[in-house]
Amino acid sequence: MKPIVRDAIYEAMRVSGNPSSVHRAGRLARRLVETARGRVAALAGAKPQSIVFTAGGTEANNLAIYSAAANGVERLIVSTIEHASVSAAAEVSALDVSELPVSQAGVADLNALEANLAGDSRRALVLLMSANNETGVIQPIKAAVALAKQFNALVHVDAVQSFGKEPISFESLGAASIALSSHKIAGPTGVGALVVGDSIIIRPLINGGGQELGRRGGTQNVPGIVGFGVAADAISKSGNQMAELEALRDHFESQLRAQTPSVVVLGADAPRLRNTSCFAVADLRAETAVMALDLAGVCVSAGAACSSGKVATSHVAEAMGLPEAIAGSSIRMSLGWASSHEDIDRFFEAWPKVVKRAGHASDEGSNGAMRARVGE
Ligand code: PLP
Fold first, then answer.
1. pLDDT tens across 69-92, in order?
2. How far apart are CA 90 and CA 84, in angstroms?
3. Residue 96, helix vs strand vs coil
């Protein structure tokens, strides 16, 4: 969290009013919420009344999918690289679900989308994220929306990863809705928003006192929403440092390739978010590397988390057609506003030991063949 966000949250916690109360303290709290709404709307290129504050990106995605039937949607087309908050919500919906595949570069296949839309006249909701959370690969959302319009279909975009990093204008995009999350833009965790088009009906997941124009019941999380607004405003006013982070990411990747020539950088052939690097060394299990790097003070994530003691492979790497030895080994590194060259140096102090301990030589070995197989 940026210090400016922390300070704003602290100040907001001193306001005792409930934004739904009509008294002075309530009106003050309401003003804080509405200022934040305007700030988030400005960064999203949306009208303030389009913003529905939620408890994060997960709830925003669920709300969009839950509301689909109320908008005449009878089926869902879900990209194979969606975050679990989309794919799991689609699975439990009462609607038919079909898959939208991606290319080996990790980009949604628009020919497949067109064929799918043309092959079934029931109204569809297309679920395509703006950028993938593991690889950072940017998706062709404008083209998907244009295609969907031809077939009277709707599009919901999980914009959690790209919001604040790549420009977006909800108004000109023409999607039915987009999901946002505060903690991806240096705001607090547990706050997000669904941005909804004027003609879209929202069926609340949480029913209550009519807050958020009847679209999400319950007293708003005033300090969290204020923090989200300040984080958005900081980007609108001072920029997002993506040019610096891209230089740092590229420096990281060139050093990584020099030290470990067998490394595979996922999605390297596609446009990517400039702060993200997802890489794998065949059979160097991601969870082993993540733990070893953590001991060295470096926080990175496995492409796929393990669940109930069982190590999963990355569904994103699998969807890209990468072999199991890579899909179980992908590590994602995200740079933030406070990341520095020293952080990258710290990584490379630890990395040779991680590779060596796992029994990998840091030169071309059997992994060289793997790189050739995945087309790097
Ligand atoms: N969608 C994507 C692409 C994400 O990366 C995340 C979080 O990592 C979410 C949705 C969920 O957002 P939240 O953690 O705010 O619920």
1. 999 999 999 999 999 999 999 999
2. 9
3. strand
Residue 137: how many other CB atoms lie within 10 Å = 28
Which atom of ligand 1 is the closest one to the Cα of 131? Answer: 3
Cα 282 to ligand 1 centroid, rounded to whole Å: 27
**CA dist 309 → 263, 287, 366, 367 (Å):** 26, 11, 29, 27
Burial class (CB in 10 A: 0-12, 13-18, 19+), 341: exposed
Pocket residues: Cβ below 6 A from ligand 1: 56-58, 61, 83, 85, 129, 133, 158, 160-161, 181, 192
- How many CB atoms sit inside 10 A of residue 314's CB? 27
CA angle 77, 83, 89 (to 5 degrees): 60
Please choose, from the candidates 346, 30, 339, 344, the residue with its C-alpha nearest in 3D space to the C-alpha of residue 186: 339
pLDDT tens digits for 267-323? 999 999 999 999 999 989 898 999 999 999 999 999 766 555 555 789 999 999 999
Residue with tokens 């999605």: 267
Neighbours of 143 (CB within 10 A): 13
* Distances, alpha carbon 59 to alpha carbons 55, 65, 169, 179, in Å: 6, 10, 21, 9
Question: Ligand 1 pocket: which of 1, 53, 81, 83 to mutate (most atoms <8 Å of CB)?
Answer: 83
Query: Is the whole-model pTM more than 0.85?
Result: yes
